Amino acid sequence: MAHVNIFDTTLRDGEQSPGVNLNGLEKLEIAKQLERLGVDIMEAGFPASSKNEFDSVKTIAQTIRTSSVTGLARAKKSDIDTAWEALNYAAEPRLHIFLATSPIHMTHKLKKTPEEVIETAVEMVSYARERFPQVEWSAEDACRSDLDFLATIIERVIDAGATVINLPDTVGYTTPEEYGFLFRYMRENVPNIDRVSLSAHCHDDLGMAVANSLAAIENGATQVEGTINGIGERAGNASLEEIAVALKIRGDKLPYTTNLVLHELKRTSDMVSKFTGMKVPGNKAVVGANAFAHESGIHQDGVLKNASTYEIITPELVGVKANNLVLGKHSGRHAFKDRTIALGYDLTEAQISEGFKQFKLLTDKKKEVTDDDLFTILVDLQTKNEDISQYELQAFQVHYGSGNRPSATVALRKPDGNVVETAGIGQGSVEAIYNTMEALISEKIVLTDYSLHSVGEGRDALAEVYVRLNVQDTPVSGRGAAQDVLEASAQAFLNAVNRVYVNQFLAQKDQVQL
Ligand SMILES: CC(=O)SCCNC(=O)CCNC(=O)[C@H](O)C(C)(C)COP(=O)(O)OP(=O)(O)OC[C@H]1O[C@@H](n2cnc3c(N)ncnc32)[C@H](O)[C@@H]1OP(=O)(O)O
Ligand SMILES: CC(C)C(=O)C(=O)O
Ligand SMILES: [Mg+2]
């Protein structure tokens, strides 16, 4: 069977999803989980795009050992130099350079002639190869490019030292037949094509990203790019879990292997969903909550008689556990710690103590503490920047009654350690809390989105809230979890505010150091 390399771009193209802004600690946790999942290459970010992005790519490059870490760069020396500064720590540093090749992009965006585009691509690929042992070159908007021009530029960048050629369907425009043809055409018409790995990168604007990726594999792609849960720019990227499971389940038609550890898929999907705030729809293939649920009587009857009547994928294959009940009221610290390790957490002793404290508090209120509950508590602990003091909720109280205007009293600890308290009103309880917190924080804060859902089932389930805010016109998202919906709402608001605060704090620190 032929092998296909998996290139994950959740942290780069995935993070380009509107409204998603991951902090460095969240990116690092996702990177570690992607390594456990067995991705061959992970694109950690676009180092030249900002100081925060540079720092997080560098930390990921320093941490990840078994997957290759790459970063994106424009065809510009300064982008390549910055990328090298961040990525040279990686076990196998790689660079991903892109330059558009379609007439639309060359004329209107780059304002370059096709000859100038060839010259720039060749010059930048050979410049990058002076540093990086592996250089991927992407022909942005390949699917709307002229085939012969594409074949010419590919031949030239391979001669300049590119080791991987990517043919992205940047705008999600192509069909499986056309995309398959593109790969066959390049295999047959670029004389030096066998010197490189050929990669597919699809977007889902017409809902064909996974089908297109599979067509590319059948026609000579040896690498496929995508994201977990299919998140990404606009309608998103090809969903890696769908591609990997399709290759596994339809090995009869698609005889290709990957290095992915399939039973890590569900956990990876859950983590990406939690950190990005992009909830996975129930009917999403492979990882949706309903992917293994059977509702109608005839289906239930069939499954009871033999699961293969209506199930082509077993839940265990992708790591969905039938019963994820874990610890209870009488569990001790050792059992708790063992469970955190089994869940894939790498916590310090201080984090374990804090997590155990929160777990015990939860067992007082909740009959069954599930893996999902633990995941929610621990994720917040692990991704909080303990080195920078931030806004903390000290206490709050809400008065609500039908016919009365809701009011809230909130006490906050500010980053300078002072505790401030005030009261305010709103049209509803959540708005009363948010208005009061806005007054205490003294910034202009606008709520642009709010969503609430429960973690698991039952009246005692944890509530999880996601918000999007504009803090002094900076868009930012935040999440909070608690047993009470109002407390979860308050925590989500502060989580978003703290993201802006931490970024400003780090930016000021960098300026002082300069
Ligand atoms: C298909 C994709 O997903 S491509 C990746 C897209 N991702 C992102 O853009 C996220 C990160 N981007 C950013 O933070 C910013 O856009 C930055 C820091 C990279 C650049 O910011 P700015 O310098 O303000 O430029 P801005 O984004 O407005 O415009 C892009 C410039 O890069 C040029 N450019 C675009 N692609 C390339 C390329 N592959 N190689 C070289 N130049 C390029 C554009 O022509 C434009 O140049 P111009 O200023 O001479 O007109
Ligand atoms: C940077 C490139 C590969 C990209 O994301 C695209 O073209 O979609
Ligand atoms: Mg893309």
UniProtKB/TrEMBL annotation:
Q: Which SMART domains match?
A: LeuA_dimer
Instruction: Give the classification, highest ranks.
Output: Bacteria, Bacillati, Bacillota, Bacilli, Bacillales
Q: What is this protein called?
A: 2-isopropylmalate synthase
Family membership, please give it.
Belongs to the alpha-IPM synthase/homocitrate synthase family. LeuA type 1 subfamily.
GO terms for molecular function, please? Answer: 2-isopropylmalate synthase activity; acetyl-CoA C-acetyltransferase activity; manganese ion binding
This protein's superkingdom? Bacteria
Q: How does it assemble?
A: Homodimer.
Q: Tell me the keywords, alphabetical order.
A: Amino-acid biosynthesis, Branched-chain amino acid biosynthesis, Cytoplasm, Leucine biosynthesis, Manganese, Metal-binding, Transferase
Q: Where does Mn(2+) bind?
A: 13, 201, 203, 237
Which Gene Ontology BP terms does the record give?
Answer: L-leucine biosynthetic process
Q: Which residues form the signal peptide?
A: none
Among the Pfam families in the record, one is: HMGL-like
| InterPro entries assigned to the protein according to its UniProt record, in alphabetical order | 2-IPM_HCS-like, 2-isopropylmalate_synth_dimer, AIPM/Hcit_synth_CS, Aldolase_TIM, LeuA/HCS_post-cat, LeuA_allosteric_dom_sf, LeuA_bact_synth, PYR_CT
Please tell me the species this chain comes from.
Pontibacillus halophilus JSM 076056 = DSM 19796
Q: Which pathway features in its UniProt record?
A: Amino-acid biosynthesis; L-leucine biosynthesis; L-leucine from 3-methyl-2-oxobutanoate: step 1/4
Q: Which sequence ranges are marked TM in the entry?
A: none
The protein's annotated catalytic reaction(s) are: 3-methyl-2-oxobutanoate + acetyl-CoA + H2O = (2S)-2-isopropylmalate + CoA + H(+)
Instruction: Provide the cofactor list for this protein.
Output: Mn(2+)
